[in-house]
Amino acid sequence: MIGTLDPKVPPGPLDQKWRSHRDHSRLVSPNNRRKFEIIVVGSGLAGASAAATLGELGYRVKCFCFQDSPRRAHSIAAQGGINAAKNYQNDGDSVYRLFYDTIKGGDFRSREANVYRLAEISNHIIDQCVAQGVPFAREYGGLLANRSFGGAQVSRTFYARGQTGQQLLLGCYQALCRQLAAGTVQMFPYTEMLDLVVVDGQANGIITRSLRSGKIDRHAGDAVVLATGGYGNVFYLSTNARGSNVTATYRAYKRGALFANPSFTQIHPTCIPVSGEHQAKLTLMSESLRNDGRVWVPTRKGDRDKPPGAIPEQDRDYYLERKYPSYGNLAPRDISSRAAKEVCDEGRGVGPGGRGVYLDFADAIKRLGEDTIRERYGNLFEVYEKITGEDAYEVPMRIYPAVHYTMGGLWVDYDLMSNVPGLFALGEANFSDHGANRLGASALMQGLADGYFILPYTLPNYLAGQMGKRPSPDAPEFQKTEGEVRARIKKILGVNGKRSLDSLHRELGLLLWDKCGMSRHAKGLREALATIPKLREEFWSNVRVLGDGEDFNQSLERAGRVADFLEFAELMCADALERDESAGAHFREEHQTPDGEALRDDENHAAVFAWEFQGDGQLASPKLHREPLHFETVHLTQRSYK
Amino acid sequence: MNFLLRVWRQKNRQSRGKLVDYEVHDISPNTSFLEMLDILNENLLRRGEEPIAFDSDCREGICGTCSLAINGEAHGPDHPGAVCELYMRKFRDGATITVEPFRLGAFPIVKDLVIDRSALDRVVQAGGFISARAGSAPEANAIPIPKHDADLAMEAAACIGCGACAAACPNGSAMLFTAAKVSHLALLPQGHPERDSRVLNIVQVMDAEGFGNCTNTYECEAVCPAEISASFIAKLNREYARARFRRSMGQ
After folding, report:
1. CA angle centred on B68, ends B236 and A76, rounded to 5°
2. Suppose A74 and one of A241, A295, B79, B101 were both cysteines; which one would form an S-S bond, judging by CB atoms 3.0 to 4.6 Å apart?
3. CATH code where residue A354 lies
4. Is B241 part of the contact surface with chain A (CB cutoff 8 Å)?
5. Which of residues 387-426 of A touch B (CB under 8 A)?
């Protein structure tokens, strides 16, 4: 049976919904706020900004992160920038345009009202960050500088060198530190959430494990906020940090929260290719390189092992320029990634394993001089040299697409609350704003919008009815959930087989990359759905995890996360199979235009797919709920970049 | 490539640690140092020995989690860069490599190569922030900031909080870390209302956490992955003197 979901979007014209909703939401008075305990899991842009802001307002907050300090959350690695509709460049930007670009970039698979609110709030975020001392780039006159980014015709991206994520996160971290000093927020670093506690249908707490001592604890709260990031590491290799994982959101899913659009994964075209089996993660090279670099592979298969300099001009295929003459090397992320895969599948890829394409700066150096290129991209060339040992001023870079961001996440309503009352999801952990493809410089914007400016208004709307209802952590539901967490740890340690975690995780990653990566088809997805349970069985019968649960044990931490990935992978493939259309990053080979572009099916699939867990025996057949997407303001069009 | 690794093993904070020898074979020069440790850990697991505990996360030099001293040098020989950005091609084939945690009283060892750097968080909590409540910020372009000041603030703000500066310092001083935070905020007009109290409180906590004093050896600057300049320490000293003076004048 298929249910229909209500996102509780407020009535009224699009540009007045958020204001009118705030005007009519319930409040919690200042002297009552300290009576509420809020659990925030994750300390990236969304989690740290939420924890700090709620602390400021007077709530008692507990914030958890698995890193040794909240400052290390993976938001820190974001390079490019953050969008806002300030129109400081006087180039015609507006809230509406930022909203429209984001909806279109997402290939019309996100919720209009949420995206509009995001665009509205974007300007407040810049104000807030500047007030906190975020050292954004400035012009000589002292005003803030902007640059352009993909998917927009205006300059609206604010940046702090190539370290925008770092500076924004340090802004949140410092705001959080202020609250830690004030005692309104209590920090639990090196602590992982292992389960959600649901009491009478409401999210009322979590079970955690200290990664330092192995101690299992219960924490009760009036609401639980998950800001635990994305699940790109299900692919084993991605640009995510080593620790990034799906456990918190997947555990919430198993306790009843709906998981929306899990198959929507952004694969970034410009990453350093895999160099061998030892590799543990992939590194992104900023997309800006494509402004001056030309992408090519040899025209003939036989040339692929020749040094690039030995391949004359007429034997090179500048395939992006050939296929997309008007956008050329600056074709959007999803399209460039698929084109690279295509030429490599034809056997024309370069470098180890034939999984790479050249990004060549020779022409740009000839035209502009090496100094100009060094000035523009010097730091990126250095990173490339460190990792590959090659000098990209002399030989072309080799690049290949890699998993970068996940648009899917827990289903949330307009208030960012999941279908489980009291459970909220923020940032990359929710699904709400990016549809089937995220535009550059929008992830930072969303994380901060959720934490600084949305949750502080929508959380009281829920809490106002919850006064005095927080259960004790000794309640039977807590005991039961804790017991299940302990049993699972015992089970993992009890397998005592022969295979290492990495080998199993790598095998899962390769399978997903092949069947549920840059392009998918029904047959491949069915094959993946048949293989994943076998891998899972292999895990539970043959994995080797040493040590014990009551102590510092990094293998055990990772084993729990891999076990969840092994289940989650099935949900991803089921979603990709059910979405019988192509949209943004989700490219179903059966659904393409005659020239190979994504072909949406707006009539049948203009909807969010949200999945409900049906029990361990039915991991491949969760229950589907659809949230139809109503477009009242924008007109749905086919994207074209020819 | 083949290497002999001498790795610090220590069960927990209380127990005594020691260097243990491990051989690794057939390592590709394109392997990162931490990936080489991953490979060693896989081998240990196969033999039924406990893997070596070490921390890392982003593995691209920005999160500041990794904290190893290689042959006694914080973050190893390839400066500037965190140890996660170090590749095996930087070593001689057959080399003996000593791997230890950052060693510093203020960073106690948790296990093997994992240390507790919460002291750095407490330094920031003492005042390394600007009190700006969400909702009350003025328009972002209301206060123009000269490009030079903004750029300089960014250079200080680039600190990744790894603690290598303190680990490399013969005095165990965290002055570079502290100076970077104080300078970043003092260089911006937004940071001025709390300028005096910030530097006085932060220095007090830095001392209380057991970090030493600066004697201008510049080891900190040499190992800093974010290339923070030691001249910010001079800025910290000026800020401190200024605040003490103003306070003594009753301001």
Report:
1. 65
2. A241
3. 3.90.700.10
4. no
5. 387-389
| Model-wide pTM > 0.95 | yes
Residue-number span of the structural domain to which B136 is assigned: 117-248
Contact of A88 with A145, CB cutoff 8 Å: no
Cβ contacts from A onto B, under 8 A: 213
Structural domains in chain A (count): 2
Residue A546 placed within a domain: yes
Are B183 and B127 found together in one domain?
yes
pLDDT band at B67; cut points 50, 70, 90: very high
Q: Which residues contact A113 (CB under 8 A, 6 or more apart)?
A: A7, A9, A10, A14, A17, A18, A414
**How big is chain B, counted in residues?**
251
Write out chain B residues lying below 8 Å of A137, CB-based. 150, 154
Structural domain ending residue among the three candidates A401, A421, A441: A401
Q: pLDDT per residue over A190-244, tens digit each?
A: 999 999 999 999 999 999 999 999 999 999 999 999 999 999 999 999 999 999 9
State pLDDT tens for residues A50-99: 999 999 999 999 999 999 999 999 999 998 889 999 999 999 999 999 99
The sign one gets for the Cα dihedral B61, B67, B69, B70 is negative
The residue to which tokens 């640009």 are assigned: A239
C-beta atoms of B137 and A133 within 8 A: no
Q: Which residue matches tokens 């952590």?
A: A473
Instruction: State whether B84 and B135 are in the same domain.
Output: no
Give the domain-ending residue among B59, B94, B114: B114
Q: How far is CA A499 from CA A246, A506, A512, B47, in A?
A: 22, 12, 20, 12
Evaluate whether residue A299 is within a structural domain: yes
Interface test with B, best of A121, A127, A179 (most B CBs within 10 A): A127
Which of B61, B96, B114 is the last residue in one of the domains?
Answer: B114
Binary contact (A131, B42; C-beta < 8 A): no
> What is the complex's ipTM, to 2 decimals?
0.98
Q: Which of A366, A401, A436 corresponds to the end of one domain?
A: A401
User: Binning pLDDT at 50, 70 and 90, where does residue A1 land?
Assistant: very low
Find the mean pLDDT for residues B8-15.
96
B43/B102 same-domain check:
yes
Query: Which of B63, B67, B110, B185 should one mutate to test binding to chain A, selecting the residue with the greatest count of A CBs within 10 A?
Result: B63
Beta strands in A151-234 (DSSP E): 155-158, 185-188, 191-199, 202-210, 216-220, 223-226
Cβ contact, residue pair A500, B29, below 8 Å: no
Q: Summarize pLDDT for A516-573 with one digit per residue, the tens.
A: 999 999 999 999 999 999 999 999 999 999 998 999 999 999 999 999 999 999 999 9
